[in-house]
Structures are given as C-alpha cells and as structure tokens.
Write a structure and sequence with these properties.
Archaeosine Trna-guanine Transglycosylase, Chain: A, domain 4, Methane Monooxygenase Hydroxylase, Chain G, domain 1, 6 helices
C-alpha cells in the first residue's frame, strides 16, 4: 500500500493550483499574494516543504467570501530556484518530492490553507526504485521524445529511466492530458497500474484501439 497507518502525519501549508504535480516534476510559478510570499520565504529559510493540491473549485487567487475545494491527494514541493522577475514579482521553480493524502485542513490566521497530511511510502523520490522489463518500451520511447522537446529540456529533469516509478511520474506530468486525467493518475498507488493506464491513454490519444 502507498500509505501506511503507522506513517506519521505532518503539518504543511497547501498551495491550491490548477496543476497536478508529481514527484520529480518541475514547475515555475509567479508569487504575488502576500500569504504565499510569506510561505515561500519561510520555506526558503527553513527548507521545509509545502503541499501542491489540484484546485477543484474556486479561484487560485482567494476572494473575500469565496471558498476553495482541493483534491485530497497532492504532492509535497521544494523550491529549487528563485529570482525576481522582470515584472517585479517573485518567481520560483519547484520540484515535487512525495505524494501525500490530506487528513484534515483548516484556514490559518495568516489566511493560508493548512493541512495534516500523510506522506506516501512509495510515491516519493526517497522510495525504493522499481525495475521493469521490455513491456513498457513504448512508454520509454514517448518519454525520451518528450524530454528532447526544447520546453521540457529547459526543466533539466533528472529522469531515472530504469525506475518504473519515475517513468510513470514524468510521463503523467508531460503528456498533454486534462487535469482530471492527471489527478486520476496521481491517485493511483501502484506503479504498474499507472504505467498500464498511461499506455491505454497514449493509445487512445493516437487513435489506436
């Protein structure tokens, strides 16, 4: 199982966005709301992660009286680079590290969405690699093609192709799928099941039966 009952919950701030982040995946973000500037500053100072959860309802920018609904499965993120953008905003590059399950969440006094989350034992960069045979050769070929695209090459991804977990994470992140499909792939707890789902989705995209 991906989540163990004995695994301790940790408390992290959540950053609801209309993206689905996977372990090993990288995104660049512009930060302009004060609550998130403070969150990013604290993360940079202490090295502590925050959680990225797919926003199911509501706007990314919180409005008075509005509510946000987030997915219960998300991914911890760490900041790997930051700079001040030409427009004066704070720009950060994040990398996903570990999938988690939200146990409960609440609004903090600083207006951040906080949550107790249980990290996955296997969907994590720190987990044991999972080898595989030739059955997923077509997935490897697709991922190598995606990795060579200039926009993907800019991310400088460090992909362990011999690890089925990484094959699934990076393909799920890079293949042009809807947010709902990506979230469904993230919520799968078995690397072989995720790879099989990706294979079916890719064949569907290419018009194969």
């Amino acid at each position: 199982m991906s989540f163990a009952q004995s695994q301790h919950a940790i408390t992290v701030p959540l950053f609801p966005l209309r993206i689905v982040l996977f372990p090993g995946g990288r995104h660049e973000l512009q930060i302009f709301e004060r609550r998130y500037i403070d969150m990013v500053t604290a993360s940079l100072k202490t090295g502590t992660p925050f959680g990225i959860c797919s926003l199911q309802a509501g706007a990314e920018v919180m409005e008075a009286g509005a509510r946000q609904t987030v997915s219960r499965i998300g991914t911890l993120a760490r900041i790997i680079d930051w700079n001040q953008l030409d427009n004066g905003l704070l720009g950060i590059a994040i990398e996903g590290t570990t999938k988690f399950r939200v146990e409960d969440c609440w609004q903090s006094d600083a207006d951040l969405l906080m949550a107790n989350v249980v990290p996955s034992l296997v969907d994590t960069l720190e987990g044991e690699p999972l080898s595989y045979g030739e059955e997923y050769g077509e997935l490897v070929e697709v991922l190598r093609g995606l990795e060579s695209h200039p926009l993907v090459a800019e991310k400088s991804l460090d992909i362990e192709y011999e690890n089925l977990w990484q094959l699934g994470w990076h393909l799920s992140e890079l293949v042009p799928l809807g947010e709902g499909s990506k979230q469904a792939l993230l919520e799968l707890d078995d690397a072989h099941e995720r790879a099989a789902s990706l294979r079916a989705l890719l064949r569907e995209l290419s018009g194969e039966e």
